[in-house]
Amino acid sequence: MLYTEHGFLDRFDAAARDGFGGVEFVSPYEFSPDAVAEAARAAGVKVALFNSPAGDWGAGERGFACQPGSVAIFRAGIETAIACAEALDCRKLHLMAGNVPEGVSAEEAEAVFTDNVGWAAEKLAQHGIMALIEPINSVDMPGYGLSSLAEAERVLKAVGHGNLRLQFDFYHMAMMGEALVDNFVRLAPLIGHVQIADCPGRHEPGTGSIDFDAVFSALGSYGGWVGAEYRPAGGTSAGLGWMRGPLFLETL
Predict the structure, then answer these.
(1) Domain for residue 1, yes or no?
(2) What residues are annotated to the active site?
(3) Does residue 101 have a cis bond before it (omega within 30 degrees)?
(4) CATH code where residue 147 lies
(5) Does 222 reside within a domain?
(6) Phi and psi at residue 20, in whole multiples of 5°?
(7) pLDDT tens-digit profile of 12-47?
């Protein structure tokens, strides 16, 4: 979402020049893995995370893991993602649930999702790649197969695999009315990746109603990557004052 004023392969250097040590992105699949890896190496940034194949994003596809008729597509996509992750030296993969198909109950979709996620967690473990699931709010992505924290907790418990973790996005949690810091602290042992954006608007921290003083204080005991997954209100670089504030710097 950041640096969209640049072409994709030029964003790595732009991020490095602004002080980012790592990058994440939705999809590397439109480019050769070698080209993406070279862009990251040349910029000196770590590829921290990307998503499993989502399909045709422009046509509304958002992954396949919860769809009963798409098990083979999902699992083939994980094989593709593993090859990309190894080329990029990326150790985390977000498993996209996909939209629940018409005529499929929420219970059936969750059962399929749980089965696919368990398979992927084991497959990815064999390659040293952490599997992640993320609840995405039902306002921004209606019909998506994983929108609530309660459902994510059920899936994590049902799968019970040490290589499966929660991707905790403070924006999505705020949009769903969840208690942000309380849930983050409660679920800390299960959290493998964090993303931030303010709410409403999904812009920089400090532009909405989320108490980022409390969020950054909680992040002080986290120790992992924090992805800035927001839409800049203006230019990307001009909006990075939050990242240079004393409270955020104390979390590093």
Answers:
(1) no
(2) 134, 229
(3) no
(4) 3.20.20.150
(5) yes
(6) -75, 135
(7) 999 999 999 999 999 999 999 999 999 999 999 999
